[in-house]
Design a protein that fits this description.
The structure is a homodimer.
Chain A lengths: L2 E4 L6 E4 L39 E3 L13 E5 L13 E4 L2 E5 L3 E6 L13 H18 L7 E8 L11 E7 L4 H17 L3 H12 L3 E4 L3 E4 L10 E5 L9 H5 L1 H19 L4 E6 L10 H8 L3 E6 L6 H6 L2 E3 L3 H10 L3
Antiparallel strand pairs in A: 1-2, 1-6, 3-4, 4-7, 5-6, 7-9, 8-9, 8-13, 10-11, 11-12, 12-14, 13-14
Chain lengths: 342, 342
């Protein structure tokens, strides 16, 4: 059974995946991940039986589950790091804290077409992918034992993708992950000091100066953050305050969100010659039953997407300090991206 | 001029290295770093003129600076991310905080011999390297503008080493890096709750159970931490409480420290077939002039070395959450390491 374990000093949770435990001689150095060929791609149309039974699919033609006809399809990860069938057990081991491997790990197959990656999808198609994210997050949030749902995409072998077919993943956890908690605490502290959302303040300054803006429309904006950890790091936010990626306003504005995301990813691909990248959605945690908790987050948190192209290798200094060295100023990165013609 | 910039939400500092600014087409994907050949290795004996003038060297034969005869040699990094000649300027940019690129970036050349890496050095030789670390940290701490000195080693191309010759590095910063601050805060909170050092408590439990111990002698112990982020992650600590890597006790115990470090690294190399790795020393920050600050750290912090072999690739989930997936339980890793014959 997999386990969650907590570092007693800094409060970081780790998943110990003992179920797929690896012997020392099994570590093939991650120089290059072998891509599975399209002919046997388990995520392609007509290969639906190669995945576990689907959780949800967009099937405009009312076709049967696990058959062709879908446009977006969600299936459990074949090698889940957390499982929905586990019981949630929290216990201490002497001074240490742990929890059972309860949670969810799903794969969102973005298109039946093996070669149609994010930037090549139409705004309508990309919108359906974003709606699938919203649908799955909202569905998982019904289980109040799940504190957080993280949606992320690994594109390209350097970014950790093991399948070429366009897909994203989600992992739902019974604890709030550390980086998310830091953002929640940071934005709460800022709100307490200023009675304003820190992200709204950042947006106001960024839009005013314009020097780090990548692309914007009426509702959404992408920019390279002032303290970018990585060259060409990009954040994408709703211009109006909104803590929750799944709220009715975001649902209504999906075409506008898809447009900014598509154009931003096209600009990134053009500027850096199709780099590997990760993106992830940081939204509010599950509404906890604790009184007042959600109310605070509602006013001080602001959902966003973080896009991180994989261009530099991290080493001991970054790991040891959480202190990143970025060789490209965000102003310069944003200028290249703004000027990229797509 | 390079800059330090602070993320306004989570307080993370980033070095924007605009001095070696990189254009989009200059990012060679970090698939494999080309190793410089020994013939032109700037860190080898007889090539002393290829480095900037040395800062310090262990020269038992009283030879002149920047000539052969040394055993350990410290030089400025040829491409420093922070510079000692910069003025320390802190300023705001609207709501953002930044500082000038003041600091230090040095290379510790561990041996004149190109092929003698850490695990092949004698305990005496390794002890001289550790003493060089202590000497440089203590020297840099004389400048009270420098808040922290991080010593780290990148070994092997996957871990970010660009030179093959055995060497470590240090970076001294005018701000306390985020990961270090988290540990300081975490251990302070623990002390306030329990009036005991959290590391001392961890050590007591680890030594008592023994299941995660790798190697120990009278004064030092190495073990795989309970919530290991990475497979075969190892921490090395003094058994007796000690906040400061440079304190007189550590100086006196250098041979015992060198023994545990050498044996641990030999076991790691044997078990995993010479993996790339990073190690780093987390010691107390510079004694700040603020009243009571050092006194607190003295009782609640405990210096340690973190060793992280590079065996798995991190992807979006880890970046987005600070929540690591580790496929090898630390109990199992420790068992392999304990049983490795060296």
């Amino acid at each position: 059974m997999n386990e969650l374990r907590k570092d007693p000093i800094v409060g970081r949770w780790v998943i110990i995946a003992t179920e797929r435990s690896r012997r020392p001689d099994s570590f093939v150095l991650p120089r290059m991940v072998t891509k599975e060929k399209a002919a046997i791609c388990p995520l392609c149309r007509d290969n639906e039986r190669m995945t576990p039974p689907e959780i949800w699919a967009l099937r405009p033609d009312k076709s049967k589950p696990d058959t062709p006809g879908w446009k977006v399809r969600v299936v459990p990860n074949r090698f889940p790091v957390l499982g929905v069938d586990e019981e949630l057990i929290r216990r201490g081991v002497g001074m240490f804290d742990m929890a059972s491997g309860f949670g969810a790990h799903e794969v969102i197959i973005e298109t039946p077409d093996h070669n149609k990656n994010l930037k090549d999808q139409s705004i309508e198609e990309l919108g359906e992918v974003l709606k699938a994210f919203q649908y799955r997050i909202a569905d998982l949030h019904k289980d109040k034992r799940l504190r957080y749902v993280l949606v992320f995409k690994n594109e390209g072998p350097e970014a950790g993708a093991t399948l070429e077919h366009p897909h994203s993943q989600l992992i739902a956890t019974p604890v709030t992950p550390k980086r998310v908690k830091e953002e929640l605490v940071g934005s709460k502290n800022y709100f307490e000091a200023k009675e304003r959302c820190v992200y709204c303040d950042i947006l106001a300054q960024e839009i005013d100066s314009g020097e780090r803006i990548v692309y914007e429309n009426r509702e959404y904006v992408s920019f390279c953050p002032f303290a970018s950890r990585f060259p060409f790091e990009i954040w994408l936010l709703p211009k109006k305050h909104s803590p929750d990626f799944c709220c009715p306003t975001t649902r209504k504005n999906i075409p506008l969100l898809a447009e900014v995301l598509k154009v931003t990813m096209q600009k990134l691909a053009r500027t850096l010659n199709n780099p590997s990248y990760n993106y992830l959605i940081h939204t509010a945690p599950n509404r906890a039953p604790r009184a007042g908790y959600w109310q605070t987050i509602e006013q001080d948190f602001h959902w966003h997407i973080e896009i991180m192209p994989y261009l530099v290798r991290l080493a001991g200094f970054e790991w040891g300090t959480g202190f990143y060295i970025n060789p490209t100023a965000p102003e310069e990165a944003a200028k290249y991206l703004r000027e990229a013609r797509v």
